[in-house]
Recover the amino acids of this structure.
């Protein structure tokens, strides 16, 4: 009898208890292996998400909590401070993300050049800011950008330029947040681009050089098209991260001056942990989730069609 024949049960064979237990064990094994991950996901992901959704349909706190339907979402639409926070977040997003990604791309191209020596050292150098803690970064720049004693204004005075009220002026406070974010994340994105650049076949550049294409032409015709999937990844990731911005403006300006750097995440935090209005804070969280999802889908649709 062959091995194949032994694996096939004869028609009408009696299923003994031992055979049934063996079949059940084989069928249950995948679920047993998945159970720890599923339990952790259910406890630390699914339950908080569902609980937050239900909480957004209530008002009050503790024993005074009562159902409110969609009242928190209607309140959100009429809340001028929420729209101010959303506008501030949008301004930072529109200015900072393109600036950071363009700088990261050119930085990656420069480090990837054959004319650059000690490329490993340069890669380490540009990546180091991204491993700095967000709170530590905010504290450091709060000292650097201090109007009276900061090193940045000291340098401006040294070269004959007027001092800037980095953290006290609404416009410059937003630019300070942009500066901090750009410093912190440019190297991170540059390393991602560098990995993508090293995956482009050198034969493409050699063939283009034979055809007489200059550096700029090679960049737009070879480098950018080849990096489109990586560009899509960094654009979506940076957009999501900026929409959830909290640490840097909280440490730098506490949302001031005059709510000029108040972000949606900061407004959520204030309502939840300062005023203990957890239902309204949960509604803000779901509104932010919807905005992030829509923007991410639009970006993937637009850039994905070009890839």
């Amino acid at each position: 009898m062959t091995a194949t024949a032994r694996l096939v049960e004869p028609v009408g064979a009696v299923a003994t208890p031992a055979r049934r237990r063996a079949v059940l064990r084989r069928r249950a094994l995948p679920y047993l292996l998945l159970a720890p991950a599923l339990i952790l996901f259910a406890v630390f992901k699914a339950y908080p998400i569902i609980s937050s959704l239900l909480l957004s349909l209530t008002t009050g706190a503790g024993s005074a909590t009562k159902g409110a339907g969609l009242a928190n979402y209607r309140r959100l639409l009429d809340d001028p401070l929420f729209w101010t926070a959303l506008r501030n977040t949008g301004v930072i997003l529109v200015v900072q993300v393109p600036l950071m990604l363009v700088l990261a791309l050119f930085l990656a191209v420069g480090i990837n050049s054959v004319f650059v020596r000690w490329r490993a050292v340069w890669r380490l150098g540009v990546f180091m800011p991204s491993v700095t803690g967000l709170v530590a970064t905010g504290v450091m720049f709060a000292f650097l950008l201090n109007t009276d004693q900061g090193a940045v204004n000291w340098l401006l005075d040294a070269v004959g330029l007027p001092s800037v009220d980095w953290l006290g002026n609404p416009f410059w406070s937003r630019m300070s947040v942009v500066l901090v974010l750009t410093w912190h994340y440019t190297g991170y994105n540059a390393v991602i681009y560098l990995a993508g650049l090293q995956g482009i076949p050198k034969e493409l550049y050699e063939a283009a050089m034979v055809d007489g294409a200059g550096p700029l032409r090679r960049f737009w015709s070879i480098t950018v098209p080849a990096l489109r999937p990586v560009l899509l990844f960094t654009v979506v990731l940076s957009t999501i991260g900026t929409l959830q911005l909290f640490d840097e403006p909280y440490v730098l300006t506490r949302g001031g001056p005059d709510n000029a750097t108040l972000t949606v995440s900061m407004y959520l935090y204030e309502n939840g942990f300062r005023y203990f209005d957890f239902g309204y804070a949960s509604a803000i969280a779901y509104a932010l989730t919807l905005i992030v999802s829509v923007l991410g889908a639009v970006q993937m649709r637009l850039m994905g069609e070009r890839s």
User: Anything to note?
Assistant: The radius of gyration is 27 Å. The CA atoms of residues 192 and 230 lie 8 Å apart.
